[in-house]
């Protein structure tokens, strides 16, 4: 008798609750607590799960080889390769070019702008990982809003949501799809209906979801999004940093004359950061520590109210006013752009305390303000621990912003004046991606092999430099996959998944099958808001498959419902990384996501479940 039949029987007859199940449930509980509280970085949590599962091998059944098997898993390597391929396409500027074409069409009509936003992000996200797609389009869409006199708040949540639904067009749209495919293939040994997904396995349903989601965002959603950031807002006003900026002059006889910016910063103390040095009308933006000071220099400093009061009595400097607008901080030639930097998912800044002087030295940008979780932080930004999605208001020379736009630590929320893309390599990059998709779709070779071949092709053709290959990978996602895959195996092997399936059948088995399917979609969506989308499919796909078998339903339908729900997290900024990327630039509050996302989640739950029933049956 196959294990699939056994799981089906266990889902209808109460299995014995064993010590193995209790231990695995305990590990799952630990994982949930760590994911929700974020007490440890997500990649560290993943490594800890591997260690705990192997240490508890007598109960979990996870030996050292199985514990590290996630690193060599097909899904992990495929996601790694697809991230590199996405990075190669990004280096050509083709995504931004598509966005700018759409912007030219949009003008100042909000609905046209929303149409352009969804059209630029959703189809592309079907073939490139949607995380870098959103990172690339945030500055483009922000510029569309500003040129069209529209609040960026109206467009940035739709950008994130459109990329999520676009990721459901193909197997390679999101890492979640690839992982779900691998789990489905592994469970295929137990359930005849389950198998790995083909490239366009669910494209027909994905296309319906994209169309319905886009129509909602264009015609309904934007009415539900407040204008958190005014159109073409002056940054100093929107970040309310005017009270924390001051101009001080280096007076005659000052000990700072002949000294350096570094020495002046040391004398002023850590709460005062020199963001500009003005001499004879010329502005040195984000000056380095070695910049020399002379009598008559005007120092533009960023500090808190108490320290500004202290400057009034400081020896050697004299307050001479305060800048009141962005224009006053710009040089005569227009250089010295003020923009926002979003701390990215795999940034080295995550967990670090903000040191404006060190930031200025490393990034060449002066920190003016900080926004966290939609809230402005005015006083005492120095020493704040930075987190994913935190948005820094900075000023930097244009060439510095260009360099920053190519770094993986931050996302620049405005396009650099002269971006440096490998536009000549765009046709090659597109051809390589078409080849990767075609080889996998025609089942000549698996997606794992075609994706790795595509990586080699991008390096050989110069689309990517060898060192850039590593920068393109979001390593926290790779470690997360490696950590949760053995957790899923433990759930299956210990019988914990079958036990949970029995509880589902007991509590909801009397309902119509399509309602149970819908409940799995809703539960997956809610869990994804608390933990990562990849973790949610690992935990729920085995349970969904066993529950489906227990009520005589189609396990593949339930696997698809979990997969779609895990990749469409609309209720808050935490459930999906693209939501975090637009959090700061849009000036959003947590409730904004729920206000526009809850109706969309409910709408798509109905559309997706009915679509699954129509195309695959339940």
TrEMBL record:
GO terms for molecular function: monoatomic cation transmembrane transporter activity. GO terms for cellular component: plasma membrane. It is found in: Membrane. Residues 233-317, 326-410 form the RCK C-terminal domain. Keywords: Membrane, Repeat, Transmembrane, Transmembrane helix, Transport. The chain crosses the membrane at residues 20-37, 44-62, 74-94, 114-138, 205-225, 428-460, 472-491, 498-524, 530-549, 556-576, 596-616. InterPro entries: Cit_transptr-like_dom, DASS-Related_Transporters, RCK_C, RCK_C_sf. GO terms for biological process: potassium ion transport. It is a multi-pass membrane protein. The keyword Membrane applies. This is Di-and tricarboxylate transporter. It comes from Natronorubrum daqingense.
């Amino acid at each position: 008798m196959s294990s699939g039949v056994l799981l089906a029987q266990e889902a209808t007859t109460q299995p014995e609750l064993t010590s193995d199940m209790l231990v695995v449930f305990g590990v799952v509980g630990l994982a949930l607590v760590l994911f929700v509280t974020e007490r440890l970085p997500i990649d560290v949590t993943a490594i800890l799960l591997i260690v705990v599962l192997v240490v508890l091998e007598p109960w979990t059944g996870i030996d050292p080889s199985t514990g590290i098997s996630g690193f060599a898993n097909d899904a992990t390597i495929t996601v790694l390769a697809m991230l590199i391929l996405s990075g190669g396409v990004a280096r050509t500027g083709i995504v931004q070019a598509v966005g700018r074409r759409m912007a030219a069409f949009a003008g100042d009509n909000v609905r046209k702008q929303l149409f352009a936003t969804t059209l630029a992000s959703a189809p592309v996200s079907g073939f490139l990982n949607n995380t870098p797609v959103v990172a690339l389009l945030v500055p483009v869409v922000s510029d569309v809003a500003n040129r069209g006199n529209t609040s960026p708040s109206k467009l940035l949540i739709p950008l994130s949501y459109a990329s999520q639904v676009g990721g459901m067009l193909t197997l390679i749209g999101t890492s979640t799809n690839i992982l779900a495919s691998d789990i489905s293939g592994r469970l295929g040994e137990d359930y005849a209906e389950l198998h790995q997904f083909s490239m366009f396995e669910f494209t027909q349903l994905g296309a319906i979801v994209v169309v319905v989601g886009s129509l909602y965002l264009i015609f309904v959603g934007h009415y539900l999004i407040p204008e958190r950031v005014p159109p073409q807002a002056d940054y100093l006003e929107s970040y309310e940093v005017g009270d924390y900026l001051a101009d001080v002059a280096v007076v005659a006889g000052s000990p700072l004359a002949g000294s350096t910016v570094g020495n002046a910063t040391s004398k002023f103390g850590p709460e005062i950061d020199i963001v500009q040095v003005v001499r004879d009308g010329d502005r040195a933006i984000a000056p380095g520590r070695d910049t020399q000071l002379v009598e008559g220099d005007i120092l533009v400093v960023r500090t808190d109210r108490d320290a500004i009061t202290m400057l009034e009595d400081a020896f050697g400097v004299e307050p001479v006013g305060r800048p009141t607008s962005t224009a006053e901080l710009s040089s005569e030639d227009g250089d010295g752009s003020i923009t926002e930097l979003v701390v990215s998912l795999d940034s080295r800044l995550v967990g670090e305390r903000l040191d404006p002087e060190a930031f200025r030295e490393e990034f060449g940008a002066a920190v003016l303000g900080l926004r966290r979780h939609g809230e402005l932080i005015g006083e005492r930004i120095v020493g704040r621990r930075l987190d994913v999605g935190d948005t820094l208001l900075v000023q930097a020379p244009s060439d510095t912003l260009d360099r920053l736009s190519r770094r993986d630590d931050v996302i620049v929320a405005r396009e650099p004046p002269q971006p440096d893309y490998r536009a000549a390599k765009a046709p090659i990059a597109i051809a390589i991606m078409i080849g990767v998709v075609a080889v996998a779709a025609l089942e000549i070779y698996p997606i794992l092999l075609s994706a790795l071949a595509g990586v080699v092709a991008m390096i050989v053709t110069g689309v990517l430099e060898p060192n850039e290959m590593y920068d393109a990978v979001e390593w926290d996602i790779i470690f997360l996959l490696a950590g949760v895959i053995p957790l899923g195996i433990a759930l299956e092997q210990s019988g914990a998944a079958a036990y949970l399936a029995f509880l589902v059948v007991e509590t909801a088995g009397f309902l119509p099958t399509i309602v149970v399917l819908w409940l799995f979609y809703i539960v997956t969506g809610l869990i994804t808001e608390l933990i990562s989308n990849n973790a949610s499919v690992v935990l729920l796909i085995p349970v969904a498959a066993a529950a489906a078998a227990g009520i005589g339903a189609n396990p593949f339908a339930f696997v698809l419902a979990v997969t779609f729900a895990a990749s469409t997290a609309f209720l808050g900024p935490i459930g999906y990384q693209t939501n975090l990327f637009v959090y700061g630039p849009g000036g959003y509050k947590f409730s904004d996501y729920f206000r526009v996302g809850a109706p969309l989640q409910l709408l798509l739950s109905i559309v997706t479940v009915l679509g699954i029933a129509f195309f695959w049956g339940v």
